Task: structure prediction
Amino acid sequence: MQKFNAKVKVMLKKGILDVQGKTVENSLKTLGFDNIANIRIGKFITFDVEADTIEKAKEIANSAVDKLLYNPNIETYYLEIESIEGNI
Amino acid sequence: MKFGVVVFPGSNCDHDAYYALKHNLGYEVCFLWHKESIIPKDLDCIILPGGFSYGDYLRTGAIARFSPIMSEVINFSKKGGLVLGICNGFQILTEASLLPGALLKNNSLRFICKDVYLKVKNNNTPFTSLLELGQILRIPIAHFEGNYFADEDTIKQLEDNDQIVFQYCDKDGNVNEFSNPNGSLKSIAGITNKRKNVLGMMPHPERYCDPVLGGTDGTLIFKSIVDFILK
Result:
């Protein structure tokens, strides 16, 4: 078995108004950051996965994200997976 | 006629619902602990109460949706049993896919706790059987994530199947952006599933069942349920 680390970024779908992002954007504008636009706020989740191969680890991680970590009605996600040094 | 009120860790309107049903209305009611994997056979209606189940971690309702009792709630609803999700209960029902769509953060980015007016859009459901079409109810809301969202196709299906049960309105019944407290699409305050045996609503009918608390319009929803079951 090998150990892998998964990094998941969950964002509101494009087209859904991100009121939190909008509020932060307005705040930055009042601080003088006139060149900043389209702020969107999401979640960043990491976890470790044990599996024989990176493909299997990715499959397990995707399944976990699909089952609980994101809501397909309103969110999209990006998953990255990498090996952690040393076998276990 | 028997109600069951599910208690999740973090539910905080479970006792309000229990009190309203038992003491204000005189119905039989029991609590259902979320770790139970069986429910009493004589239940007629299950209530998922308001609150902050699992601290609203990850997404509202996302973790509660996997509590052991939810398998039984889903089975119960598939058999036609009545399920009413109030506030956090509504959020749990969308996460469990018993209702379509999702509840986003309020467009004001504020927690809103106030009375709102609701317009009855469909009185042909077990939850609104004693109400008139277009009737206006005054019931409080108390939420941060009540901004109903669904994609265009889903909204069209909700409209085509008459699944929108309550809309936010003003005291005269006008539905517009000024009477919409949280940015919900179509001013949606409550919807049912296609079969009409599962209702999710953000307002809290259990809080307006006692005149001492400022209103009794909430009783009309619970009385409708009982009327429907006993008929």
Q: What stands out?
A: Chain B touches chain A at residues 58-59, 62-63, 66, 94-95, 100-102, 104-109, 149-151, 183 (CB under 8 Å).
